[in-house]
Amino acid sequence: MGSPDLTLLDSILSPADLRSLDGRQLKQLADEVRAFLLDSVAHTGGHLASNLGAVELTIALHYVYDTPGDRIVWDVGHQTYAHKILTGRKDAMASLRRGGGLAGFPRREESEYDAFGAGHSSTSISAALGMAEAFRQTGAERRAIAVIGDGAMTAGMAFEALNNAGATELPLLVVLNDNDMSISPPVGALNNYFAKLMSGQFYARAKKASDIVLSKVPPIKELAKRAEEHMKGMLTPGTLFEEMGFNYIGPIDGHDLDVLVETLKNIRRLDGPQFLHVVTKKGKGYEPAEANPCLYHGVSAFDPAVGIVEKPAGSPPARPTYTQVFGDWLCDMAAADARLVGITPAMREGSGLVKFSELYPERYFDVGIAEQHALTFAAGLACEGEKPVVAIYSTFLQRAYDQLIHDVALQNLDVTLAIDRAGPVGADGATHAGSFDLSYLRCVPNLLIAVPSDENECRRLLTTAYQHKGPAAVRYPRGGGPGAILETGLEPLPVGQSAIRREGGRVAFLAFGTVLAECLRAAEELDATVVDMRFVKPLDEARILELAGTHDLLVTVEENVAMGGAGSAVSECLAANNVLLKVLHCGLPDRFIEQDTQENQRVQSKLDTASLVERTRKKLSE
Question: Fewer Cβ neighbours under 10 Å: the N or C end of the chain?
């Protein structure tokens, strides 16, 4: 596919250039941005459908607001590619999500137009409110805008921020980018009219004047207020946001630039918290993405002229990912135990629950982007004898740490955590890396922590965790494993028992998780012992003390930060038993792991075979 004709877009080097355009040119610009975006993401991969749907909204915001002085805070960041293109980064889009290239999310270090870093959802309103308050404190005549999606609006943090903002007089604008519903043309036209009316100065002045007059007659003012809310409630779904202290406007067509621009211009002149409800269509302008926005949410490189091609029937099966191993195990265990309940915080596809949701819809719960609720909901189920399994990414479990400690572990409830995306995650970078879970989990009492080394061990340790009476966690990485032959049964492994994979001489590698393969390769060069530790908690202390008595050096290896991780547990064991021995801790370094391929991230973290050999030899020579 050739590069699209970008007559207008090529002249836009910053939002200042955009604001110099005639309003009639904005539609052409939107078409060019959309064409460029599709062509670019088709080459690099990335988030496509959500970005195609946010083109007009992005243009309108930068056209009306004086960025970067005015701050646009994007929630999650899945919809910021047009923003990057229009803020001087168009020519760098070929490096998107690659090592040393543009991040897939907003990043403050990358551009002055990225007002706030994102990656986890539902933070935008809180951050924008903080900025609006800072402007008030300093007397700056600036505006703060939070752009949040309908999915992110399900999280409690968003409502906490709305509740706080509604009690202020700050000129904060919250834009709800609602891409999960559609407006028929008549309703859309009607709502557009009322949006312009309610965002206009006449409506605002008339409302303020009536409030002053009617305040002298409280009963009549209350009656008028109820009548207004009743009328607006019939015309718009904004009563909830009005009750929280916002002036609700919308819903409006998020692809109608004339309406967007006029409404935003009106809003910019208003005081107090404003809430604009914008309806957009995921995949807008690219028919395959419009028809299947889920398939085109996150894509690898593809030919836009053809679309994403499904593998033909009869193709040899790909090596299963750990996510698929978990999904199959969940269905098998559900068939064996009617008490099993599957829970996900809005990650059905990513966590491998599609098949389970189809086979057991009454036992499947997607609670939305609400990780805290997911854990406590699971705790409540466990209180009544159910067996909840929470499928969650390592990076998202961080958001529910208090619930894990207080609501699950403290009460020793029978909740199983299936922790996906442990360790480096490739192109998603630091915001999604599962770098810390072993450190923040192993200090929690009552919690069993298992770290499978391959696909079959993953299946068996999931069974072990599920059958354990109490809270248990199994963590596994993104992508596939070494290709171990999968058993079909549901046999557990002995709790707290490691397994020797290779006998060797002076050095013993203690492998925690899928780093086992690298350890085995390094051990061949060093003639070292290799142990698949399987569990971080309870730790196989007997094995560690046995190895300490027969080896000169123990090397702990894990895809978790070395600080406070599994290796630290080994040293604590040795210290508690008064054993003095050389120990080398190999884990993720004390820095955030930036985007790159997973292979390169391991090399940068010195967890590849060559680095393990070099580090071990150096430690032996000390």
Answer: C
